[in-house]
């Protein structure tokens, strides 16, 4: 929901709400929705984890587990590979208002033009990833995904350089390829990082999620406002992030080849 359906629906719902009332209505809607979700969770979402397999809340033990995770070099290679490539896509999510309104010249009802192709491509990539699992080596799936993402942002940069970066549909072609590649590789990356420490999977996933969300939050306020003034700025920055992610992944593949870490 965080990375798939929600980013596609939220801007559309927000645009509709702005047609019904002032911007305050958006925050009232989110507040009410939060309360509804809390009540629904308490009433209709039972705990399915077996009691005998549950871990008591012991802060010292939790911190020890997280410390064990962050001391793993493989964790950082995989987590940052996924974070950088997804960060390239999230650059457009966090900067959607700038990209849609300032770059494309759209309004509050035009956010679907960005999010539908982007999220649709990501969902399609995730579907392809699932279909490929068990048939193609996981390492090859991730490598193919990142190659597609890299090619997409190279194409996006070229389109921006020739003046098509602010014209639909060309403005989202490269982004759609980036999103497809991310959808193809990201599920495998998550499984790989989970398999690093089978007895610490909760800590591992918490660590990776923290890295990804923290980077995206910082990027949204420290990077996007300064590079998002043009389609070229968006494309070049996303390209740099994909390259960084690909370099992290290449380092992990070298570690796999040396046998210093096992493949998933």
What is the CA-atom radius of gyration, in angstroms?
A: 20 Å
CATH superfamily: MFS general substrate transporter like domains
Oligomeric state of the chains present here: single chain
Query: What is the averaged pLDDT score?
Result: 86
CATH class: Mainly Alpha
Mind describing the biggest β-sheet? none
> Helix count?
11
- Kindly estimate the percentage of residues that lie in beta strands according to DSSP: under 5%
In the CATH hierarchy, the architecture is Up-down Bundle
Q: Give helix % range.
A: over 70%
**Structurally, how many domains make up the residues?**
1
Name the poorly predicted regions.
Answer: none
Separation of the first and last Cα atoms = 25 Å
User: What is the general shape?
Assistant: globular
Query: By helix and strand content, what is the structural category?
Result: mainly alpha
Q: Which H/E pattern describes the elements?
A: HHHHHHHHHHH
Descriptive notes:
The protein is mostly helical and 264 residues long. The protein has one domain: Growth Hormone, Chain: A. It contains 11 helices and no strands. The protein has helices spanning 5-20, 24-44, 59-70, 73-94, 96-103, 112-132, 138-161, 170-194, 201-222, 224-227, 231-258. The longest helix is centred in the last third of the chain and has 28 residues, at 231-258. It is globular, with a radius of gyration of 20 Å.
Characterize this entry briefly.
The chain has helices at 5-20, 24-44, 59-70, 73-94, 96-103, 112-132, 138-161, 170-194, 201-222, 224-227, 231-258. With 264 residues, it is mostly helical.
């Amino acid at each position: 929901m965080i990375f798939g359906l929600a980013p596609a629906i939220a801007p559309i719902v927000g645009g509709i709400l702005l047609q019904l009332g002032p911007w305050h209505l958006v925050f009232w809607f989110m507040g009410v929705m939060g309360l509804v979700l809390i009540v629904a969770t308490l009433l209709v979402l039972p705990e399915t984890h077996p009691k005998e397999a549950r871990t008591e809340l012991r802060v010292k033990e939790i911190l020890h587990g997280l410390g064990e995770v962050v001391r793993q070099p493989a964790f950082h290679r995989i987590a940052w590979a996924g974070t950088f490539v997804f960060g390239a896509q999230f650059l457009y999510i966090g900067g959607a208002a700038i990209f849609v309104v300032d770059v494309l010249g759209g309004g509050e009802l035009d956010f679907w033009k960005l999010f539908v192709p982007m999220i649709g491509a990501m969902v399609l990539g995730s579907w392809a990833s699932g279909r490929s699992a068990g048939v193609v080596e996981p390492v090859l799936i991730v490598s193919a995904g990142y190659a597609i993402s890299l090619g997409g942002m190279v194409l996006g940069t070229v389109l921006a350089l020739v003046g098509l970066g602010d014209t639909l549909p060309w403005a989202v072609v490269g982004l759609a390829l980036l999103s497809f590649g991310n959808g193809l590789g990201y599920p495998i990356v998550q499984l790989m990082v989970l398999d690093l420490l089978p007895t610490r999977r909760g800590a591992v996933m918490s660590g990776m999620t923290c890295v990804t969300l923290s980077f995206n939050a910082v990027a949204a306020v420290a990077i996007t406002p300064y590079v998002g003034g043009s389609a070229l700025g968006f494309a070049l920055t996303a390209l740099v992030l994909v390259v960084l992610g690909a370099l992290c992944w290449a380092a992990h593949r070298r570690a796999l080849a040396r046998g210093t870490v096992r493949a998933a």
